[in-house]
Design brief:
Blueprint: E1 3-11, H1 18-25, E2 34-41, H2 47-57, E3 62-67, H3 72-79, E4 85-90, E5 96-97, H4 99-110, E6 116-124, E7 130-133, E8 148-150, H5 151-155, E9 168-171, H6 172-177, H7 190-195, E10 203-215, H8 225-230, H9 232-248, H10 256-280, H11 288-305, H12 323-330, H13 336-357
Parallel strand pairs: 1-2, 1-4, 2-3, 6-10
Antiparallel strand pairs: 4-9, 5-10, 6-7, 6-9, 8-10
């Protein structure tokens, strides 16, 4: 039986949180139109039993794929060939969708013919803080909601902020025709979900719907700065995979608008990796020799592919110090007092940004 939307739910040791995830989407008005694809990635807890119990209760709406552990990308690769939905998206099993928003989203999809559907999402922080993430620039919303655009028309606006997995739904046939696959064996491959389809997609539609609820409050979450600092080698591998994909693609067939956007996207991903090393990694764990080698490799890749010179300014936009240029001059990180001041200003300015623009 065909469905309107397949929702891939990668699951590893999420016995306690998986029910909340599934309950958020298996609701009246959605059951007939969705396929919840729980992919158990070799969990050692009761995740598989939980998934199977939901399949028994909702046999027409839940499918379960049980496979050996292969990390995040392998779950997507296992699910995509079997997906029955016209559209497909990812929902991590420690997160959930707003049920009322899901109904609105399905109603919108029912009347769309688009390669990409883009929705808002909410980041849930420790302590109960909520951050609505929309696709705008300091409050300016350049796209009309519900209108289908040629993707190049949208990309000429420049780099779209917050172009993240949590807001992206694709036409399933688009991914199949491009033989879409994610890298297996490492984390952070959701970046590929945001990047590779942009090489082939032709149309995009923005919807004024807060759908995905992104739980950053959970201890051990992969984007927790403590986890990132322990997983830098995986993130570096991910960047290398992105660069390899770019270099093996037929970039000559892309419009100049598309190519410019992708180069900015790549530069931003590389910038984030630099930030993880030079800003987020505790000083006592910072390996200057290894970073020097990585910097040389990435600098060469940027020159080779036209990504431009990467600059790393503090997020607060008050301190105008290019931290990467500082490294190139002095081969060390700034003093402790500077890093402490920078972190404090980042927090203050982010709070002000949220008050005025979110």
């Amino acid at each position: 039986m065909s469905k309107l939307l397949s929702i891939i739910i990668p699951t590893y040791n999420m016995e306690a949180l998986l029910p909340r995830c599934l309950d958020s989407i298996l609701v009246d008005g959605a059951l007939e139109r969705i396929e919840a694809m729980v992919v158990n990635d070799g969990s050692k807890d009761g995740s598989l039993a939980v998934a199977n119990s939901y399949r028994e209760r909702y046999p027409d709406s839940v499918t379960v794929i049980d496979k050996p552990n292969g990390n995040y990308g392998s779950t997507i690769n296992a699910a995509l060939p079997a997906a029955k939905g016209k559209y497909v998206r990812i929902l991590d099993s420690d997160d959930w969708l707003r049920s009322d928003s899901l109904i609105r989203f399905l109603d919108a999809l029912q009347n769309l013919e688009t390669d990409m559907a883009v929705t808002h999402f909410t980041i849930l922080h420790e302590g109960g803080g909520r951050e609505l993430t929309k696709y705008n620039d300091y409050g300016r919303e350049p796209f009309e909601y519900g209108k289908t655009y040629q993707l190049d028309e949208v990309l000429k606006e420049g780099y779209i902020k917050y172009f993240l997995m949590h807001g992206l739904t694709y036409r399933t046939d688009l991914l199949r025709k491009m033989d879409y696959r994610q890298t297996e064996g490492i984390s952070y491959t959701d970046t590929e979900w945001c990047c590779y389809p942009v090489f082939k997609a032709q149309t995009v539609t923005f919807l004024d719907i807060d759908l995905y609820q992104y739980n950053m409050a959970r201890e051990g979450q992969t984007m927790d700065p403590k986890v990132i600092s322990r997983s830098l080698m995986q993130m570096e591998k991910m960047i290398r995979q992105l660069i390899s994909f770019f270099e093996s693609s037929d970039t000559a067939s892309l419009s100049e608008t598309r190519l410019t956007f992708l180069r900015k996207y790549y530069a931003n991903r590389i910038r984030f990796l630099y930030k993880c090393h030079l800003v987020d990694t505790p000083r006592e764990h910072f390996d200057a020799v290894r970073f020097e080698e990585l910097d040389k490799e990435l600098t060469e890749a940027c020159l080779r592919n036209g990504f431009g010179q990467v600059r790393l300014y503090p997020e607060n936009k008050i301190i105008r110090c290019d931290l990467l240029r500082f490294w190139h001059r002095h081969h060390r990180r700034p003093r402790r007092w500077f890093e402490s001041l920078n972190r404090a200003l980042n927090v203050i300015m982010r709070k002000l940004y949220m008050i005025f623009f979110r």
